[in-house]
Amino acid sequence: AKSSPSQSEFYQAVLEVLESLSPLFEKEKHYLDQNIIERIVEPERQIMFRVTWVDDKGKINVNKGYRVEFNSAIGPYKGGLRFHPSVSASIIKFLGFEQTFKNSLTGLAIGGGKGGSDFDPKGKSDNEIMSFCQAFMSELYRHIGPTIDVPAGDIGVGGREIGYLFGQYKRLTGRYEGVLTGKRIPWGGSLVRTEATGYGAVYFAQNMLQNAGDHLDGKICAVSGAGNVAIYTIEKLYQLGATPVTCSDSRGMIYHKSGINLETLKQLKEKQQAPLQNYLQTHPDAVYKPVADYAPGRNEVWSVPCDLAFPSATQNELNQADALALLANGCKLVAEGANMPSTPEAVEEFLKARIHYAPGKAANAGGVATSQLEMAQNASMIQWSFDEVDLRLKNIMKNIFTSAWETADEFNQPGNLVLGANIAGFRKVADAMIDQGAV
Ligand code: NDP
Predict the structure, then answer these.
(1) Where does the record place the site Important for catalysis (predicted)?
(2) Which helix (DSSP H) or strand (DSSP E) does residue 68 occupy?
């Protein structure tokens, strides 16, 4: 990692997985004989491309585009597209690596992939977003397909962007097919896909609590983020009797002790794309703290008293000091809606304290699982009801929990869902690779 600091997030993710796989390698030597580690950390294919688009002033802009097709041992590549200025080859590679194990854990036939661009959607007009999406797809279309690689949304990519991407794919290929997920309902989307990651993270937390004889009802929850995952985490927490008291965006955080007002949050973030600070206009009793006022090196979302925490914004948003603050404030459960939101030092603290800790690849797998349900509906040309998809999502989250929990037990580390999720996810992919020969 030291010789290649530009891939720091990727090395962080690899290290975490390999460390928890060591008990498996001790027990089952054939993985090492098959050189599986070297094979599985190398993406099958990485595509980097120029995205040239014209803004409203007529200026030609250039961004970097990426698609990493990481592993297709158990199914077509599947994973989101992220549009954010922080996107780099390392970020996409780490996300694709994690995605491979997450997708395996869902029990569904989907391989791992991820993509995106350093394009910043903030402040862009609708026309500029369309222009960018069309330019992005003008290269991507030749690499994807419903049985090859099926991208979805992620940070900065929602229903609107998926629409522009799909329209351009159709124009270039002439094919109406399930090549993207996260589509809007009238033209091929699945009910519950919008809600799936947030709902799934809460279902996962519910499984952890129920398994310990506890429940969500009455619990105070800290949630970070104010996007797709955070909003539907908050919605499901309310439905199951808990009270979410925080949310955040890249500019600051809201602490509303009596409970975040979900309608206001949706209005601000889904309809207006407004900063969270505007929440105070209708809820003057809430507290807003801009990032500039956070204690140095801290994310203030994690400093409020809470029973449960749902990091749902981005990678490395919860460090060791944040973890210690959560523990000191009585937090008993962390379920990661985001990908790799906790630093390795923070994870160490959670494992040491033996609280319920669910890594993103287990807790946030509901999003990709529901994407696979969208693929299944597209392929069969049938649309399922909201309740049917929701029930399947619930069952998938329960199965992921059980699989990670039982695998942790099998390796004599009861309750260690990091180890359980990594080994369970890895084993299925590695076994498929071995079955398929020297691939
Ligand atoms: P959105 O773009 O809808 O929302 C992201 C939220 O996080 C926004 O509130 C954004 O604030 C905030 N945020 C993003 N980057 C930063 C940053 N660097 N610092 C502080 N805040 C930041 O994305 P999603 O909700 O879809 O994704 C959130 C996380 O969940 C990501 O880690 C993603 O990979 C993961 N995930 C998403 C899935 C999905 O189905 N959508 C599936 C599985 C995982 P602002 O708007 O101000 O930038």
Answers:
(1) 154
(2) strand 60-71
